[in-house]
Amino acid sequence: MRSFLEVDDLSASELSAVLALASVEPAPPVLAGKGVALVFEKPSARTRNSSEVAVFQLGGHPVTIRGEEVGFDVRETVEDITLTLAQYHAAIGVRVFDHKVLERMVAVSPVPIINLLSDVAHPCQALADVLTIRQHVGSLSGRTVAWVGDGNNVCRSLLLAAQLTGMSMRVACPPGYEPDIAAAVTHDPTEAVAGADVVCTDVWTSMGQEEEQARRRRDFAGFTVDERLMALAAPGGVFLHCLPAHRGEEVTAGVIDGPASRVWPQAQNRMHSMRGLLLWLFETG
Asked: N or C: which end of the chain has fewer CB within 10 A?
C-alpha cells in the first residue's frame, strides 16, 4: 500500500486520478467495516472534519486521537504506536510538528500513512487547492498562481502540485522567508500577482511560532493581500486561503469576503479531495 507524505509522492497522472475520484458520487464504500486512525498532535478544524466525513462517506469509521493519547516517543516509540494502530486501522492519518515522525511511521507501517500536516508539508491542502482552481478557473495547464506571504509548508506543497499540473507559481515573500524548494521568488507582491489567475496566502504566524509573532508582523508589512493588490490579478482571478484567516494581517476583509474569494468552496474541497485520495489509495494505490 502507498503512503502520502508530500504531493510529489504522486506522479502527474496519479494526481489527476485523485482529483477525478474526488468528484465520484456516490462514493463507493471501499472502507466498509474498516477503521481509519486520525492522530492530531496539533488541533485542527478543517482537517479533522474533512477527514472524518470523507472516511464516513467511504463506509469507514474514523477514530480521532489526540497526540497526548499516544505520546510519540513519550509513552511509546513512534514505531510501536504505528504498529499498534495498524492492527486496528486500514490507514493512519497524522498531523505532527516534526515531519521525521511521519517518515519513521512509513518505515514500519503495513498500512498507508497520510500526512495531515507537518512542519515540512501540507499535501492534503494542496489537493484541495488544485481541485478548487480547476473548478473555478478551468483547465490547470498554463495557469499562473501567485503566493503572497510565508514560503511555508502550505506554499511548498502547492508549488509541487503546480509543477505536476502544468501551472506556474510565483512566490512573493520577505527576505528570509523563501520556500525550501526551487521556485520563482520575488520580494515584491505586485510582481507576483500581476496577471495571475489565482492569488493565495496564509497566516503570517503559524501554530508553534507564537513567540515570533511580533517580528513576523514587522517582516511581513507590505505583504497584505488587499483590494489594490488583488486588482492586479488577471480578469476573473480568484483568491484562496487555507484558513484560519487573520483579517487585517495577511488579507483584508474586502478580499477574503469579496467576490473573488473562493475560500469556502476551497474548505469544502478538503473533504472531497481527501475522499478522492482515500479512494485512490484503496482502489488503485
From this structure: N
